[in-house]
Structure formats: structure tokens, C-alpha cells
Design goal:
2 copies of one chain form a homodimer. By secondary structure, chain A is of the alpha/beta class. In chain A, the strands form 3 sheets. In chain A, strands 3, 4, 5, 6, 7, 14 and 15 form a 7-stranded mixed sheet that branches. A 6-stranded parallel sheet of chain A has the order 10-9-8-11-12-13, sandwiched between helices. The first copy, chain A, has a two-stranded antiparallel ribbon with strand order 1-2. In chain A, α2 crosses α3 and α2 packs across α9. Chain A is globular, with a radius of gyration of 20 Å. Chain A starts with a strand and ends with a strand. The model of chain A has no long low-confidence stretch (mean pLDDT 96). At the A-B interface, α8 and β13 of A face α8 and β13 of B. β13 of chain A pairs antiparallel with β13 of chain B.
């Protein structure tokens, strides 16, 4: 019998919050790499909020995953067999082969990792896409100044937890919003946030925000949207900046919910509100990774990986991440 | 009997659309200018959308007008008597003395006008605040590129009609949204807009916008907010820019209405949405006025003044402007 490998395919377009049955776990023969390809064995898979958008079937900034397609996503792994001059068996690589135990991947889409510089899993987190999302998405759009007040929603996630720490490095006062008391404790006691609160137990976001931001809010890094964001806008100061990174509170709604109109605040407070996809700064990732690595080395940035063991648990991990079960970067260890 | 002059005071905080009875027309003795002041006789008064915000009693970017206060606003007039070395009787001046037939005004708050360079009324319109709002608010925030598609709401107003013409000068394709067929005709046939439609007779804004903007929208200059703006957002192209100048559709609502959430579009299309108050570019008005005057002279910009005669009709003119009765800049000739 030929050796087999498992993969997750999209089985159904999720309605509302995805279910495990929206994904099918299948076995295929281990693929043979063609010329220019390498066979990689997955070490870690990433599950990220953006993937929810890819499986809706609506083209936004990237092509949707269709029913029957292997799920997309970043992964790190080790080269088993190489038909590409740039890689040799044993090399560790970062790529975008999705939810597969093994895959034949074009060498030109892979990045070689040096496992002696940093654990390879960091290429999916603090030194990868989420790290660059935090670094560029916050610094380039919010342009934070020392002494300013920064609010981060989804603050205990892979991106938010880094944004808050970068804001502290830049001399800001930082307030995090997260969904469990444990996360709130971690933000304040381990990561150095000046304040944080649990939106699931807060009864009045506006009152809570006024309490922790008595002089208003200068920068808002938004991962969640919805009611939390609605409460932030009226408290933004003149010339406030809003970096729109995610709107996870809305990704699983079966029908969009209306909300208060935010443009009147944008007008009278002269706000700048900007959305981004991190790939727009792709040409500058080297700069971002070097700076994040330096801060990590100096102990100025901490990062946490929330690791689910076992390839077969990838869909479950993805759903858990959408429900806010993770603290820090959610990964699947294969 | 001492000579008298009339003024309008705020009599009541309007609920919803202002009524004439929210203002009281009063007679006072003509004031005597103190040292440093000049006595001015008003030639033209400006009525502008921003004034609606000033009479709500809520401090936004400027202090509110209180009950019993003279209504604020820009005006041009002629000096009757000067106790300020910078002005002599007969000089024409621009100032901010509000809805008064005559006023004693600090000389340092006045700007001398040269009536030989341009009609003095233009200092309240194309060469004044509305002109600078269009010039800086569009160019600085939208940064339009040749060939881009620009949509302007409130397109036949003092600001919108100039924005569209500036966009044409910059090589854009320009679509205007206005509230009467006459305005639409003026935009397309006189001002050179590429297309325009009447939102009061259009039944489906989205369908109409798709028809006139088949390749999407790159820049949106928003004077109105509300349902029109809701229809524009989904059609904005990647890296689209939105300049939030006004939200007039909401100024007279007794209770804010909810609307569709717009941040998801801001995210996936990487939009930049920025609100502004024109005073932020005050230090550069010289540059803006020189450029607008040049375009006027070259015939590249047309402007229209919608003039109501008689000081006693100022409140009526203001209400009419809020209801969209004006085409171009609404002025009261005293």
C-alpha cells in the first residue's frame, strides 16, 4: 500500500459559525513532487480569522476556497524530498500549502527558515503574518505618538497582543479588550497593558471605556467590529486614527446586523479610518521581521502560542479560534 | 430715535428640521465700535450646513450657539466707521459677525477684500470657506489620480459643485448625486460632470451607481451620509478614498437611525475614510484661493450663487438650504 497523508477539504459552505462537518478529513497517497517542487511534511499549521472570509464563496481580496478544495493557510514544515535547487531534504520551510500533512509544493513559493535563529513556529506568528499585521497595520496606519491612548480589540489574539506591546514600546497608554478574565489578566500582568477589560462580563462598554480612557482615545486597532467598535468611536479624540484589521464579530453572522452610523464621528472628530490587508507591505517584511526579532531578543515583546496537537483537530482548532478560545497565536502541531 | 439694526438670535433649539420660529428677529440700536473695532454694514450673509450643528447645543468641534445668542456665520460687508488702523470707511471686509445687519467687530478678526479682483460675495463661496472645503478636502484626502472615478454627493451644493469640477480638472471621471432634475441637468450640461442622477427619483441607488460607475468608484466625496453613502461603500474599489465633508441627511434627525455597518468594506477594500473640518488647512488658504481664482479666470471652474434678498429672510434661507432648495452657494443679500 502506498504511503498516505491526510488533508482537510472544504465540504460545505458554513452558515454562521463553521461546524466540523463543513470540512472533510481525507486520505490521499503522498504526492510525488514534480520538477521544481519539494515534498514537505507539515510541522505546524496556522488557523487565522481571515480564513473565515475565504470559505464564504464571495470574492473579496482573494479567491474563495471552493467546495472540494483543500483548505488554504500558512504552514511550516520540513523538506522530505526536493526537486528544486534551492532546497534540500531536512530544510525547514514556510509556505502556504494549507491543511495538509504532506504536500508537493513549488519551491518558488517557499521561504527557507533557520531553526537556530528562532523556533520555526514563530514564522506563523510573531515573526510571520500576524506579527507583520501588528507591526505595519498599527505603526503605518495609527502612527502612534508617545503619551497617546491606544485601544486594541481582540487584544489577546495573535495580532492584538503584539499591537499592545508595540504601542507600549512607542510610549503609549494601552487598553485591551478581550473575552475572558484570564486573557485580561495576561494582558495586564504579563504583557504590560495599562488596563484591560472582559467584554463578555462588561455590561456597558461605553462606561467601561470612559473609566479606563478618561482623556479619550487617540488610536484604535480594531480586530472585532460590531458593538465594541460602536462604543469606541464616540470616545475617539480629534484627529484619532482607526486601523481596521479585522471584524471577527461579524464573520459568522448569517445576516449583517445594522449598527449606529459612525461617519458623523469621523467628520466632527476629523478621524482617519483605514482598513488594510497585510500583504500591501510585503516588500517591507524584512524590516518588520528584523525589528520584531530584535524586540523579542531584548525581552520587549512576549508572544504566546496556543498549540492544538494532532492534524485531525485542525478544523476544531479553527472553530475554537473563531470563538475566541485561544490566547495568543493558535497553531496546530502535526 | 437712535438708528437701529436687525439681528437674528437663536430662540429655541430646533427639534428635527429647524423652523423659522426657532430664530427671533430683533432690533437693536446700531452699536458704537470700541477701540480696535470697526462698524460694518452687512452686504451678504452666508448660510451653511455646518450651522445646523452649532445650534444643537452639543459641543463638537466648536462651541454651540446658546439660546439668546446672535446666530453665527460668515459675512461680507462694508466698513461704516473704523477705530482700527487697518481699515477705513468704505473698505470691504470678510468676517464672522453672524446674522446681523450691522455689527461692531474687532478689526483683527476681519480680512480686507479687493472688490476689483472678484465680487465680494465670492469670499463666502468659491473663494472662501466652501471653495477651500472643496479644494483641500477633496485634493488632500482623496488625492485623485487621472482616470479615476469620483462620486460626489450633495453635488449641486456650494462645495459639491466645486469638487466635481476640480475632479474634472484633475482628469477624473465624475459622477454627481443631487436632489432635483434641474440640478442634475446643471451638473452634466453646465459643469461638465460625466454623469449625475436625482436621488429623489432613483428607486435603487446601488443599481443606479453600478450603471454610471461600471468599473467601481475610486474616490467618494461625501456631503450627505445616510442611505446614499451606504450605497456607495460596496462599490468602492481597492484602496478607495472617502472624504467625509458633511452628513447633512442626518443633521435634522430627531433620533439617529442605524445603518449597515461600513467597516467590513473598509477592511476588505483597504479603504481610507477621513473626516475633516476645513480650518485644519487655514495656514494654506492663500494657496487654495490663488488656485481657485486662477481656475475661475481660465473658465475651468464655474460657480453659482443662489441669492435670497432681504435680511429678514435669513432664517428662511437657512432652512431652505438644509432642505436642498439651493443650487450652488446660498447667500442672503442684505
Amino acid at each position: 500500500m502506498a504511503p498516505v497523508a491526510r488533508q482537510f477539504k472544504l465540504a460545505a459552505r458554513p452558515v454562521g459559525m463553521p461546524k466540523e462537518s463543513d470540512f472533510s478529513l481525507e486520505e490521499i497517497p503522498v504526492p510525488a513532487p514534480a520538477d521544481g517542487q519539494v515534498l514537505v511534511k507539515t510541522s505546524y499549521l496556522s488557523v487565522d480569522p481571515y480564513m473565515r472570509g475565504r470559505i464564504t464563496g464571495v470574492r473579496s481580496y482573494a479567491d474563495p476556497v471552493n467546495i472540494g478544495d483543500v483548505m488554504v493557510g500558512g504552514a511550516v514544515g520540513q523538506v522530505v524530498e526536493s526537486h528544486h535547487s534551492g532546497f534540500a531534504a531536512g530544510d525547514f520551510v514556510l509556505g502556504y500549502w494549507g491543511w495538509q500533512e504532506q504536500a508537493a509544493v513549488d519551491g518558488k513559493t517557499l521561504l527557507k527558515l533557520n531553526p537556530n535563529l528562532a523556533p520555526i513556529s514563530t514564522a506563523l506568528g510573531v515573526l510571520g503574518m500576524p506579527g507583520m499585521t501588528a507591526y505595519f497595520g498599527f505603526l503605518e496606519i495609527c502612527k502612534p505618538q508617545p503619551g497617546e491612548v491606544v485601544v486594541v480589540s481582540g487584544a489577546a489574539g495573535a495580532v492584538g497582543s503584539l499591537v499592545g506591546q508595540i504601542a507600549k514600546i512607542k510610549g503609549c497608554r494601552v487598553v485591551g479588550i478581550a473575552g475572558t478574565d484570564e486573557k485580561v489578566h495576561w494582558l495586564v500582568n504579563d504583557l504590560g497593558f495599562d488596563a484591560a477589560f472582559n467584554y463578555k462580563t462588561a455590561t456597558d462598554y461605553t462606561a467601561k471605556l470612559k473609566e479606563v480612557c478618561p482623556s479619550g482615545i487617540d488610536c484604535y486597532f480594531d480586530n472585532v467590529g460590531g458593538a465594541i467598535t460602536d462604543s469606541v468611536f464616540p470616545l475617539l479624540n480629534v484627529f484619532g486614527r482607526v486601523s481596521v484589521c479585522g471584524q471577527i464579530s461579524m464573520y459568522n453572522l448569517e445576516k449583517p446586523e445594522p449598527g449606529p452610523r459612525l461617519l458623523p464621528y469621523t467628520l466632527v472628530k476629523q478621524l482617519k479610518v483605514e482598513g488594510f490587508i497585510v500583504t500591501r507591505w510585503q516588500s517591507r517584511w524584512g524590516e518588520g521581521i528584523a525589528q520584531m526579532a530584535q524586540w523579542l531578543k531584548e525581552g520587549k515583546i512576549q508572544h504566546r502560542e496556543d498549540i492544538v496537537e494532532g492534524f485531525e483537530n485542525t478544523a476544531k482548532a479553527f472553530i475554537g479560534m473563531l470563538q475566541g478560545e485561544n490566547t495568543g497565536k493558535m497553531l496546530v502541531k502535526v
